[in-house]
Amino acid sequence: MTLVPVSEVRAKAEEALLKAGADPDNAALQADLLIEAELRGVPSHGLLRLERLIRRIGNGAIDPRTRGRHDWRGDGLLHVDGQNGLGPVVARAALDAISERARRLGVAAAAIVGSNHIGMLSYYVETIAAQGQVAIALTTSEALVHPYGGRTALLGTNPIAIGVPTSNGPFVIDLATSLVSMGEIHDRAHRGQPIPEGWALDAEGEPTTDPEKAKHGAIAPFGGAKGYALGLAFELMVSSLAGAALGRDVRGTLDDTAFCNKGDLFIVIEGNSGQGEAFSRYLDLIRQTPPEAGYERVLIPNERALAQRAERLETGLPIADAVWNAVLKLSEEGKP
Amino acid sequence: MTLVPVSEVRAKAEEALLKAGADPDNAALQADLLIEAELRGVPSHGLLRLERLIRRIGNGAIDPRTRGRHDWRGDGLLHVDGQNGLGPVVARAALDAISERARRLGVAAAAIVGSNHIGMLSYYVETIAAQGQVAIALTTSEALVHPYGGRTALLGTNPIAIGVPTSNGPFVIDLATSLVSMGEIHDRAHRGQPIPEGWALDAEGEPTTDPEKAKHGAIAPFGGAKGYALGLAFELMVSSLAGAALGRDVRGTLDDTAFCNKGDLFIVIEGNSGQGEAFSRYLDLIRQTPPEAGYERVLIPNERALAQRAERLETGLPIADAVWNAVLKLSEEGKP
């Protein structure tokens, strides 16, 4: 593990993307997404992904210059053909466009297809909530999750993020509808540790605690039947509005060559600024709830991530040696 | 338990509401919500609630004539002062208004405060999805749910419903962010049965399997930290947009006299009609997934409820004697 100053990581990641052919603004935004994930302790959405992005650019599966083509379907609904652009670049352009529309209309939404992995969803809703608007973000993924009671992976991890303005800054949640991420299962496999019962099934649909077997099987939905229902509804809703692929037809976030055909959905609603303080008081009340036996304290979503971010801005980013060496090589050569 | 033809239940429930002072249209809609819940096997949102509604009308906490006051905040965002109207009446008027706006704008939303309990959320999103639009519905409630790791009830049960059009009719989910409903805990108490570990805490914040103690305590969020995060985000988002009360300040869905100050939020997005068949094929694939050991088959959300509805339209509604007798008395006297 190497501790690298954020400015150095940023310079190298941007350099790598520039050499691969990205415009400067696009390189900066894509690098920022990866770095923010590292800052907040979500390495599965961090620098690990840079090599794959650059391979995909080299293979023509990502066009690092486009921001996507915008097609308004009514004054408030934006449909975006991502034109195989970098996920954060296409997402940001769409989100900025609907944020502006929501100022006038009260609400606007964007459905995106044909864009690449957009990274940590909280990034997007946090920036919108910081501007005083409520935001909902959804994205779909390759089929990694089994339906409740079923043996095979048919659903994406289908996360949701929500941002709400408060007088103490944005309140943010960001969670997958899978019980854990495939990244966590790979991490256990890497460290040779078993996974807890109930996390996953093997390729035959039998429960397993072996992460190597789980890698070829299916992750459980979180919260049983309810998490399954949510994940399925998100998959259908996003696919419906974006025109994106469904289930096992989804490609392009875990490989180097396929055009990415998942969907993203953003909804922005003009906030009611009058209640920010009531929200902060309510969150304080929750924070101060006496903890249940076995728990140290009650946490507010996203606060641990923000504390870690503040710390890492000072200390630098702890990056696995193999990942950092790959970033350095990419920044020198613009390819793996 | 009495088996009563739906037409007879409908006539008696409408009669009760008319005698209590509701307009005919409003009485029909409120009765329909209660009856649809009974048809779909959700008696906690069914006729059980009629007596409380009529007491609240008698006490001036419900105005059974108003449809709420509409205030457009931009072309696409409707804010509704419910004027203490019947929940379904105010919700339906708002939903119809934004459904029409979404036809033109692509998306529209309504935030409602000061309306009463709106009943089963699936009712609303199903009707919108049947018209080819995607719908999201949220509503808040009295604080009955403890934060993950905390001892006291600070969150509503904060359900979400989503409806998506498919070529085989609406796909619908409707779920609370609590692990179970307070109605289920009352039902166990009534039958003298213990509740499973993990469902609830007692008034001191200790885990309990005694439903009598759980009634005065707090229900767990579903899915641990993730369900807690979702429920909290829904509470803040709805409250923010509607101007509704938060947490323990919420009143008026479980008592006979307080003005109801929870919030409701609806979002309607114009659908993309081109994919209906792909959705039906995908749902078939899920339905046909080989079941895990211990499961009979994989279920699609809402399908069991719809099958039960079809059956009960034929057989009549099985209604607890005490509930049916109360409905009969209310229909004769217009008060309890």
TrEMBL record, chains A, B:
<dbReference type="InterPro" id="IPR003767">
    <property type="entry name" value="Malate/L-lactate_DH-like"/>
</dbReference>
<dbReference type="GO" id="GO:0016491">
    <property type="term" value="F:oxidoreductase activity"/>
</dbReference>
<protein>
    <submittedName>
        <fullName>Ldh family oxidoreductase</fullName>
    </submittedName>
</protein>
<dbReference type="Pfam" id="PF02615">
    <property type="entry name" value="Ldh_2"/>
</dbReference>
<dbReference type="InterPro" id="IPR043143">
    <property type="entry name" value="Mal/L-sulf/L-lact_DH-like_NADP"/>
</dbReference>
<dbReference type="InterPro" id="IPR043144">
    <property type="entry name" value="Mal/L-sulf/L-lact_DH-like_ah"/>
</dbReference>
<dbReference type="InterPro" id="IPR036111">
    <property type="entry name" value="Mal/L-sulfo/L-lacto_DH-like_sf"/>
</dbReference>
<comment type="similarity">
    <text>Belongs to the LDH2/MDH2 oxidoreductase family.</text>
</comment>
<keyword id="KW-0560">Oxidoreductase</keyword>
